[in-house]
Amino acid sequence: MCSRACGFPASQPSICRRWCRSTHRNGKRISAKELDVMASQRRIIVGISGASGAAIGVNLLKAMRGLDGVESHLIVSASGMLTATQELGIKRSELEALADVVHNVRDIGAAVASGSFVTEGMVVAPCSMKTLASVANGFSDNLLTRAADVVLKERRRLVLVARETPLNLAHLRNMLHATEMGAIVMPPVPAFYSHPTSIEDVVNHTVGRILDLFQIEHGTLVSRWSGLAHDFAR
Ligand SMILES: Cc1cc2nc3c(=O)[nH]c(=O)nc-3n(C[C@H](O)[C@H](O)[C@H](O)COP(=O)(O)O)c2cc1C
């Protein structure tokens, strides 16, 4: 049970949603020091915000779960949960079970809110225009945007899988601002040259390209371009 008397019987790192709303493992709030001990070499924060494309965040977590030495830290915004449920029919508990550690988006005191908690960086997938605007303007009003702000200030890798179409000038300007600060804006645009035959193919190609940006070997998610066949090139 949670040591803060919320009655949360967590056996894996997870959030208490009944009372204290902080990151837990074995019924106790996880301190940054404990998270340090848990750490394998490569911690990556995964933010899921309320843009369309929740499958990208979900499949990213699934891919990371299968990789040795990679530790995922999940933060889902309220709208992110809404879109994930609308698009995938997934429950919060099912989504959270895919991550190694789950942080409540309202827990602004979580480990990932500080630069002293070392991570490789963060992916926001999908990234809504609202979250993009927050990140681009340093407006850290929840843990997801604070964690992204920290990643930028520490000069770590921040990948924003920004999804909207068409784009207005504010969206474009915010993408420019984020890029100028060092973020990588990576809209989830399908690669038709790989001849995808399913939505899963399209999603996994994006997931693989995200992992490429962290130089994480992931096997077969991306169908790699190896040049035009000789017949076409003529
Ligand atoms: C089903 C659904 C799909 C949405 N798709 C997008 C989208 O593709 N891009 C976007 O910027 N906002 C989209 N929104 C709106 C965002 O969820 C909304 O702006 C929200 O405030 C974003 O909050 P967050 O960035 O804190 O998650 C969508 C909303 C819903 C309900």
Secondary structure: elements and pairs:
Layout: E1 14-15, E2 23-25, E3 28-29, H1 32-38, E4 42-48, H2 54-65, E5 70-76, H3 78-88, H4 92-96, E6 101-103, E7 121-127, H5 129-136, H6 143-153, E8 157-162, H7 169-180, E9 184-185, H8 199-213, H9 230-233
Parallel strand pairs: 4-5, 4-7, 5-6, 7-8, 8-9
Antiparallel strand pairs: 1-2, 2-3
Describe the protein:
- With 234 residues, the protein is of the alpha/beta class.
- It folds into two domains: 1-30, no CATH class; 41-222, Rossmann fold (3-Layer(aba) Sandwich).
- Helices cover 36% and strands 17% of the residues.
- The protein contains nine helices and nine strands.
- It has helices at residues 32-38, 54-65, 78-88, 92-96, 129-136, 143-153, 169-180, 199-213, 230-233; strands at 14-15, 23-25, 28-29, 42-48, 70-76, 101-103, 121-127, 157-162, 184-185.
- The chain has a six-stranded parallel beta sheet, sandwiched between helices.
- A hairpin with a 7-residue loop joins strand 1 (14-15) and strand 2.
- Helix 2 (54-65) packs across helix 8 and helix 5 packs across helix 7 (169-180).
- The radius of gyration is 18 Å and the shape is globular.
- It starts with 13 loop residues before the first strand and ends with a helix.
- Residues 1-12 and 16-21 have low confidence and may be disordered.
- Flavin mononucleotide binds at residues 49-52, 77, 79-80, 82-83, 86, 128-131, 163-164.
- Flavin mononucleotide (FMN) binds next to helix 3 and helix 5.
- Dimethylallyl phosphate binds at residues 193, 209.
- It comes from Cupriavidus basilensis.
